[in-house]
Design brief:
Number of strands: 5
Strand content: 15-25%
Distance between the termini: 76 Å
Low-confidence stretches: none
Helix content: 25-40%
Oligomer: single chain
Strand order of the largest sheet: 1-2-3-4-5
Amino acid sequence: MKNLRKYIKEEIKFLREQKIKKRYPMPPEIKDALENKLKMSPLIRFVKNLKAVNSIPPSYRIFLLNGQYFDIIYEDYSLMAKIGIDEYYLADLDERNYAIKHINRLMTKPIMKTKEDEEEAIAATTPTPPPADEPTPEPEA
């Protein structure tokens, strides 16, 4: 009986979490802009996640696999890619090409390591010294 109660509580908790973490499909115009205009097809190779930004005008933040991101903003006549401080209108061919180059620089930027990652890498490459309580044998002459 206790196992059944525990199972029911876990299922209720799981269902509540699923309700909170509801996923919505990517808008087709954003998907088209990423795949066709910005040449990021297939998306799974480049994009980790995207998130709707609560802004005026409406926009989406695109998170890349290496931790970098950029925004796609709805404008009156076109979508605009905002990468850092630079803005590129995707309807203009020249600006779209610059946006593709800028996104390529974002994707090829090295991933910054945190201090903990560096410490783990150093610990993995450093040989461990022998225990101090055991005397080392002296060579015989």
